[in-house]
Design brief:
- There is one protein chain.
- The chain is of the alpha+beta class and about 1250 residues long.
- Strands 1, 2, 13, 16, 17, 18, 19 and 20 form an 8-stranded mixed β-sheet that branches. Strands 9-8-7-6-3-12-11-10 form an 8-stranded antiparallel β-sheet. Strands 41, 43, 46, 49, 51, 53, 55 and 56 form an 8-stranded mixed β-sheet that branches.
- Strand 16, helix 8 and strand 17 (about 365-370) form a beta-alpha-beta unit.
- It is globular.
- It starts with about 35 loop residues before the first helix and ends in a 9-residue tail after the last helix.
- The relative contact order is 0.08.
- Belongs to the peptidase S8 family.
- It catalyses: Release of an N-terminal tripeptide from a polypeptide; Hydrolysis of proteins with broad specificity for peptide bonds, and a preference for a large uncharged residue in P1. Hydrolyzes peptide amides.
- Keywords: Aminopeptidase, Hydrolase, Protease, Serine protease.
- InterPro entries: Peptidase_S8/S53_dom, Peptidase_S8/S53_dom_sf, Peptidase_S8_His-AS, Peptidase_S8_Ser-AS, Peptidase_S8_subtilisin-like, Peptidase_S8_subtilisin-rel, TPPII_C_sf, TPPII_GBD.
Length: about 1250
């Protein structure tokens, strides 16, 4: 026991009892009444309910999720964990793998088939985990380099001190320095290969397949005994097997097996792509035996359906979502939670949207999804959650318990609120966008690899599973009470009993906070009301906003309008159920409905009070007159009630949203939004119509507090947005988080379009404390170019642009810069195939997905980052007509360099040949065939940006005369300019297009902001055929006139043609037949004999060395070497035709001479005569540093034990000089083999293992497949 030597006198020996911890905020359940519901009904805790979690994957060993049968299914729907294992025949009770042999188990059933593959663990690890593990491995690697590096430096210093001037001494010193360089380079250029997993799949008759997962470094040590296969791992679905990759990572994984095919068997190694999915699952149903820490529905089961593709850093893909939908149905899920989403161009549109509708309306699976984290501006709900009518879209709320326990806030100023970033409706088609709100934060389960058991996360990603857990409680009750339900019945109960949160707009909270107790009461009270199951499809006669009245632009907000509302009761999915039971329901259905608004004082809306509704629907008219409304946001809903039972709540709701901008005044170019004092979490919205011709504005936000009173910062959010048809909100928004100190001023430049309503939302961040007082000024500026996008053709004529200043006087000084270029590729190959396995069937279990794989080829003359674009598909995911698009890029060794999807990122590539493969998926072959010729755009950065010159007149442009310079344009006037075609950058080819931006406004230091439109205007220049440089007449240096006759010339041409044909067959089986035929006529012809030497060396048949030496010696004897030597030592008149002819012949003979001497050296490697052969070669050519003779250089230094020099040569070839065209062409694997041999000889064991790992990764046997 420790002895306390001293203690502060200020510490009380009897501390007061600490206050109790507000644990209910850790996993918020009281505000939704989930906790009191569970207290009253402990068995309705989610048991009997299966929740499918569409996410990054779930760690079934995470705290609260590791109970018996809690996680009942784990599926990687993305394909990122797929490994195609190839069939291998055992030999001598062993199998061959890329890491070495493995010994079979002692007992193997007859008829067993084995498959082998390898997988880089980092392809399965989450990014955060890679960063942690890689840092640990790098430290270990660097530490291993230290002692050998010190020894190498000591040895080098000793050799330098010795000062040996002999050739051998100079070489020894160079070798010592090369060893230092190799170690230093290995340390500085360290790139962690990560663990390499060797996989053996065993498929025995009448049993489930199993796999053995081995680690290359641990189980296959260099020179060690082959590992014996033991401890097989079975599929999670069969045996619930879960394993850990290693103690360093703490990453758990499980397996699934696809049906074997002729290509092999696909093993899916499923690990989570992030902690997000486990946290979401913990909110849904973690079971910890603690009512405060438990998930919302601790009795519910979880099916993990991984849609976050690890290859994309956990971004979802179409493949992942579509497969997850199928798996959710197949595995009996009652609820799906999807805490994912993206901005979308269109609502309620696309293949995925259609499949979700089918799942909800036909299969009665309740789909819950996050609304998005992109607020506080309007119209920021994402897909699928906020843009699909069949989904329950959930916003995020933070209550006071959460503020205290989760966020440790020192004071609670304004009570609960929604988070500032929680997305806000409406959807572009008029839907409300947010249906419900729920607590948007929790401290709960995370995977073991996080090295903590719980973590705080917040977002609508957290509110959605809280809502899903609440629904699981309701379904648990219904199932146990044998009460039938469908998705619509549950949605009505939730929406009609939700609790409206004061001071939050309906676009923020939808129907309000979900209330489990009241929803349960509703479900039980109206369980016999068949109309609760009817879906009332409500639309208006407006194509753009058919799902709600949504007026936003100035003109439409200042006129009276009439809309036809159609309410159509739907029975089942697509109304396609023709059973007598459903048909009878249709016939019998009739409801007398009362209509009302959710806000009583909306005198600007006129509507009928009643409507009698039958199957096939009814229409009625409403009138909206917003003319007298003040500027700002106005929302309400037209609601239809059952007049016979109005307490049931709304049967349908039609959203009505008016965003009325401030009065239009083109002369008001600098509206002042005034000084604002914010209540806690308050948002202030301003709707302004930018004046005609405005292209950008500067928004100035100033903190109005006095530094004397307060020195702390305040977090204020500025969010602007304009809405355009078929355009996702992200393309026209600007969101800035401003940390302002008293007196600070922040200026934000925002691109805008004149005449289109712009929202400017200024918000006090939800957790900001203290007085928040700011002022906000807006200044519209800009000039309007015609055309807006400048496209300069390949004809080289330049282009003409007019700019007009409509807003105010402007100074223009055009600056056009091109910094990227695109190359356009057509497919070299295409392959259509049916995707096998049940995972590639759609929801109906019958319709199969097909894929079209297009292959493109590109040669890079320098290292580059490339972005592969498919304009016809990019930018669309949930609203896409196709199931998926995916691109994979490989180098010439088939190594995967990177991937991209509908939002392509740059992929780093080394110079050389690369292969790009694009896969498009859909169930329709005819639709896929339309893409068989799809052109691929490959974008790269220019080495140096290209500036386009602007001229005042066409004449000046043509002559290269006076530049445009700087000019003032009075308001309402125009200026004209001409852009000349730039010179072609060296790396750009014919047909490429240069891409950049042009800024017309002149930056002015007197302006508040940058003084120009953010990002400028797009400009492109198409590159036509390269202009031929003028030819300068030179002296006639042609050979002397050929006086031979036509027959003699023809014989020579025939000889050269035959020799060329023979040379093309070098290394092939039919070479000898062609050579034997040619040699009959041209015996002794040196090019023909040289081709034979090349063939012998390349084919390497038995005794090839002897044959090469003999023939090389014969050729050398036939060459007049003295004449070549004398010629090389003299100067010659190359204007003399006779001399030119002689030079051409001697150059040919010298090339043949050195090639044959080099191949003779290859035949003598390790044999007597090697040194003499190399000496002969060096008489005629410089070997050291010559890529053609790299193999000679390597072998010579290896023979002299100069390993450092060998490593230097390998590095030179590997870094780009290569060996193409050399006596021996080294592939990546060959260089790695040489490097490994030298490392072994030097005793650098850690580098041997490092090299072995990269050898597996750098030279795969085939292209990695898509999924």
């Amino acid at each position: 026991m420790s002895t306390i030597l001293s203690r502060s006198s200020t510490i009380s020996s009897n501390p007061p009892n600490p206050p109790s911890f507000p644990s209910h905020g850790i996993m918020p359940k009281e505000i939704t009444t989930a906790l009191p519901f569970l207290t009253q009904n402990p068995t309705f805790d989610g048991r009997g309910v299966i929740v499918g979690v569409f996410d990054t994957g779930v760690d079934s060993l995470a705290r609260g999720l590791n109970g018996d049968q809690k996680v009942v299914g784990i599926v990687d729907c993305t394909g990122s964990g797929d490994l195609l294992c190839k069939k291998v025949e055992p030999k001598d009770k062993a199998l061959t793998t890329v890491a070495g042999p493995v010994t079979l188990p002692a007992t193997v059933p007859a008829g067993t088939t084995f498959y082998v593959g390898s997988k880089r663990a980092y392809e399965l690890y989450p990014k955060k985990l890679i960063n942690r593990v890689s840092a640990e491995r790098k430290k270990k690697f660097v530490d291993a380099c230290k002692a050998p590096l010190a020894q190498a430096k000591e040895a080098s210093d000793a050799l330098e001190a010795k000062g040996d001037k002999t050739k051998e001494g100079i070489k020894a010193r160079a070798n010592a320095k090369a060893l230092i360089d190799s170690l230093t380079s290995a340390e500085s250029s360290y790139s962690d290969p990560g663990p390499i997993k060797i996989v053996v799949v065993q498929q025995s008759p009448d049993t489930h397949p199993c796999a053995y997962i081995l680690d290359m470094e641990k189980d296959f040590p260099k020179g060690g005994e082959p590992p014996v296969l033991s401890d097989p791992m079975y599929a999670f679905d069969y045996n619930r097997d879960v394993a850990k990759f290693d103690d360093a990572s703490m990453l758990n994984y499980c397996l699934n097996f696809e049906t074997p095919t002729d290509d092999g068997i696909v093993l899916t190694i499923t690990a989570d792509a992030g902690a997000h999915g486990s946290h979401v699952s913990g909110i849904v149903g973690a079971d910890l035996g603690d009512e405060c820490m438990n998930g919302v529905a601790p009795g519910a089961k979880i099916v993990s359906l991984k849609i976050g593709d690890t290859r994309l850093g956990s971004m979802e893909t179409g493949v992942g979502v579509v497969r997850a939908l199928t798996e959710a149905k197949k595995r009996g899920c009652h609820i799906v939670n999807m805490s994912y989403g993206e901005a979308s161009a269109v609502a309620n549109s696309g293949l995925i949207a259609d499949l979700i509708d089918e799942m909800v309306y036909k299969d009665n699976i309740i789909f819950v999804s996050s609304a998005g984290n992109n607020g506080p501006a309007l119209m920021t709900v994402g897909a699928p959650g906020g843009l699909n009518k069949s989904i329950i879209s959930v916003g995020a709320y933070v209550d006071t318990d959460m503020m205290v326990s989760d966020y440790s806030m020192r004071e609670i100023a304004g009570g609960g609120t929604n988070y500032t970033w929680s997305s806000v409706g409406p959807a572009p088609d008029g839907m409300n966008g947010v249906d419900i709100i729920a607590p948007g934060g929790a401290i709960t389960s995370v995977p073991e690899w996080c090295l903590q058991k719980n973590q705080l996360m917040n977002g609508t990603s957290m509110s959605s599973p809280n809502c899903a857990g609440c629904i699981a409680l309701l379904l648990s009750a219904l199932i146990q009470k044998n009460v039938p339900y469908n998705a619509e019945r549950v949605k009505k109960a939730i929406f009609n009993t939700a609790k409206i949160v004061p001071d939050l707009n309906t676009l923020v909270q939808g129907n309000g906070m979900i209330q489990v107790e009241k929803a349960y009461e509703h479900l039980m009270s109206y369980k016999d009301e068949l109309s609760e199951e009817v879906r009332f499809e409500t639309t208006i006669n407006r194509v753009a906003t058919k799902n709600g009245v949504y007026l936003r632009q100035h003109d439409e907000c200042n006129k009276r309008q009439t809309f036809t509302v159609t309410v159509n009761p739907k029975f089942g999915f697509l109304d396609d159920d023709r059973s007598i039971e459903t048909q009878t329901k249709r016939v019998e259905f009739e409801m007398r409905m009362n209509l009302k608004l959710t806000i009583d004082d909306c005198d600007w809306i006129s509507f009928p009070d009643h409507v009698v509704l039958m199957h096939n629907g009814r229409n009625f008219a409403i009138e909206v007159n917003p003319c007298n409304l003040p500027s700002g946001l106005h929302t309400t809903h037209l609601i239809g009630y059952d007049s016979a039972n109005p307490n049931r709540g709304a049967m349908f709701k039609l959203p009505i949203t008016i965003v009325k901008p401030q009065p239009l005044d083109d002369s008001d170019v600098a509206p002042n939004l005034g000084q604002m004092n914010f209540a806690p979490a308050e948002r202030k919205r301003f709707f302004i119509t930018p004046p005609t011709g405005a292209t950008y504005c500067d928004i100035t936000v100033k903190d109005c507090r006095s530094p004397k009173d307060d020195a702390s910062s305040r977090l204020v959010v500025l969010h602007t947005l304009q809405s355009f048809p078929h355009t996702p909100y992200r393309d026209n928004e600007k969101q800035q988080y401003l940390y302002l100190n008293p007196g600070d001023t922040s200026v934000t430049g925002v691109a805008c379009t004149g005449g289109v309503t712009m929202e400017i939302c200024v918000a006090r961040y939800w957790s900001a404390l203290g007085l928040t007082e700011v002022s906000c000024d807006v200044r519209f500026r800009g000039v309007t170019p015609t055309p807006e996008t400048v496209n300069i053709s390949a004809a080289g004529s330049g282009t003409h642009v007019r700019v007009q200043s409509l807003v105010s006087d402007e100074t223009v000084s055009p600056v056009a810069k091109l910094d990227k270029f695109e190359t356009y590729l057509t497919p070299k190959d295409n392959k259509m195939e049916a995707k096998t396995g049940s995972r590639n069937l759609l929801l109906d279990g019958i319709t199969r997905t097909y894929s079209l794989t297009l292959t493109y080829e590109l040669n890079l003359e320098a290292d580059a980052s490339i972005t592969c674009r498919v304009p016809s598909l990019n930018g669309y995911l949930y609203e896409s007509a196709m199931e998926a698009q995916f691109i994979m890029v490989y180098d010439s060794s088939k190594k995967l360099l990177g991937v991209s999807d509908c939002w392509p990122d740059a992929i780093k590539c080394k110079k050389g040949d690369i292969t790009i493969r694009l896969q498009i998926r859909h169930s329709s072959i005819s639709l896929l065939k339309k893409f068989e010729g799809q052109v691929l755009a490959v974008e790269r950065s220019l080495k140096s940006p290209v500036t386009l010159d602007a001229y005042a007149t066409h004449c000046d442009m043509v002559k290269g005369g006076k530049k445009f310079g700087k000019r003032s344009i009075p308001q309402g006037n125009m200026a004209s300019m001409h852009f000349a075609v730039p010179s072609r950058p060296k790396e750009v080819k014919e047909g490429d297009v240069l891409i950049g931006a042009v800024h017309y406004e002149s930056s002015d230091s007197s302006l508040a902001g940058a003084g120009k439109k953010p990002k400028g205007w797009k400009i492109t220049v198409a590159m036509g055929p390269k202009e031929k440089a003028p030819v300068t007449p030179k002296a006639d240096v042609s050979e002397v006139k050929d006086e031979r006759g036509a027959v003699e010339k023809m014989e020579e041409e025939l000889r050269d043609w035959k020799v060329a044909k023979v040379e093309k067959k070098i290394g092939e089986d039919d070479f000898d037949a062609l050579f034997d035929d040619a040699v009959k006529s041209y015996e002794g012809w040196l090019p023909l004999m040289a081709a034979k030497v090349k063939h012998l060396e390349k084919k390497r048949a038995e005794d090839w060395e002897k044959a090469v030496i003999e023939m090389a010696d014969d050729i050398v004897k036939r060459i007049d070497t003295d004449k070549i030597a004398i010629w090389g030592g003299m100067k010659h008149d190359l204007t003399d035709g006779h001399v030119v002819k002689e030079k051409k012949e001697l150059d040919r003979d010298k090339g043949i001479l050195t090639d044959c001497l080099g191949r003779k050296c290859l035949a003598l490697i390790g044999e007597e005569g090697w040194d003499a052969a190399v000496k002969d070669l060096k008489k005629w050519v410089k070997v050291d540093g010559a890529d053609k003779f790299g193999v000679i250089e390597i072998e010579e230094n290896k023979s002299k034990k100069l390993g450092g020099l060998v490593l230097g040569i390998v590095k030179r070839m590997d870094d780009g000089s290569g060996s193409k065209g050399g006596l021996k062409v080294y592939k990546k694997k060959d260089l790695l083999d040489i490097r490994e041999t030298i490392y072994e000889e030097l005793g650098w064991a850690w580098l041997v293992e490092y090299n072995r790992a990269w050898k597996v990764l750098e030279a795969p046997s085939d292209y990695q497949e898509f999924n």
